[in-house]
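Ops channel
N.P.: pipeline sanity check, posting one input/output pair.
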């Protein structure tokens, strides 16, 4: 194998290693973002459920006649 060919293979390997490291970093960043969004989504669902319960209780109370009727 010629020295020139060996150098080309080393350069390609270095490029692939660098690209692999960058992809690993990006995957880690995206995983953190997904975790953050998942937590926010759960909190929003809980908030919606809480608000729906409040509305449902208000609807039940509206059906009752006030004591002065």
């Amino acid at each position: 194998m010629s020295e020139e060919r060996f150098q080309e293979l080393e350069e390609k390997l270095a490029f692939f290693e660098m690209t692999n490291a960058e992809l690993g970093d990006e995957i880690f960043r995206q995983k953190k973002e997904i975790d953050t969004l998942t937590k926010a989504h759960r909190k929003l669902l809980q908030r919606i459920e809480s608000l729906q319960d409040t509305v449902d209780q208000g609807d039940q109370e509206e059906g009752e006649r006030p004591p002065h009727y």
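N.P.: looks fine end to end. The mean pLDDT is 90.
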